[in-house]
Amino acid sequence: MSLPFILVLAMGVLFACGIYLMLERSLTRVLLGFILLGNGVNLLIVLTAGRGSAPLTDGVDLSTVGMSDPLPQALVLTAIVITFAVTAFLLAMIYRSWRLVRADSLQDDAADLQVAITRIIDSEAEASTEYDDTEFGDEAESPIVGAVDLDQDGRRVDRITAPGPSTTEREDDR
């Protein structure tokens, strides 16, 4: 096995373990998963950089051929700083949660669940098509007050309360 293959395998394991830990309800496991994911990203950036030589020169060949691109090293340093900052933030959240609740895991709030269920019920009610109303303007089954008269006949036809000739028969009578 070659070294790049082993590093790709290690990167895959870091990503898999990191995502698995981030899906848990425990805040400490979320923190550990984030740290593993950050290390996996750092390894990914290093692997995409190509050969692992010094950023400026290899010491022998002073031309541009002996130099490697310093951008991947700069990106890894930036990723390390960002991972450290988010880790410190997550540690502060975990500490605050522990001080307030004396528990490390997240609990479902009953009021939040009720709001979520109400939103689902409301969205299902809005999506239902109990009536077939394809008319717009003042001739709809439930028109908006002040709706525009789209066919410009000057009258509002109420199909619900006034049984009568169909729309095509009314047009033939004109």
Automatic annotation (TrEMBL):
Transmembrane segments: 6-23, 30-54, 74-95
UniProt keyword Cell membrane present: yes
Cellular component annotations (GO), alphabetically ordered: plasma membrane
InterPro entries linked: CPA3_antiporter_subunitC, NUOK/Mnh_C1-like
Intracellular or extracellular location(s): Cell membrane
Keywords: Cell membrane, Membrane, Transmembrane, Transmembrane helix
Record membrane topology: Multi-pass membrane protein
Chain positions covered by the region annotation Disordered: 152-174
Alphabetical list of Gene3D superfamilies matching this protein: 1.10.287.3510
Keyword Transmembrane: yes
NCBIfam families in the cross-refs: PRK07946.1
Family: Belongs to the CPA3 antiporters (TC 2.A.63) subunit C family.
Protein name per the record: Multisubunit sodium/proton antiporter MrpC subunit
